[in-house]
Amino acid sequence: QVQLVDSGGGSVQAGGSLRLSCTASGRTFGNYAVAWFRQAPGKEREFVAGIGLNHYVTNYVDSVKGRFFISRDIRKNMANLQMNNLKPEDTAVYYCAAERWVGQLKYSQEEYRYWGQGTPVTVSS
Known about the structure:
Blueprint: E1 2-7, E2 10-13, E3 18-26, E4 32-39, E5 46-51, E6 58-60, E7 68-73, E8 78-83, E9 92-100, E10 114-115, E11 119-124
């Protein structure tokens, strides 16, 4: 069992930055892939970014490439999502998710068993 706690959300103006954090406890976090999803009002939850066991395996949804950066610190049992040049369309509740690494990233929410509680991000124009 892995427990995840999301933090770092808030309200910013367009062009601003936020850094989300996902802190894990329980089983060895280092054996799990980590992803960030987001869910905007009235929309389905979507994959935003994912990272494998190290920084050699990462991927992003096209709309955030070049602006968002996912990282992890296995020693601290943490994963982070640095979000730069935020846009109003980035407004959503952001969720950290984790699943045991099986050699490739997963992009569907159904493929992740462990979830944080969500942290809201609001970007005003």
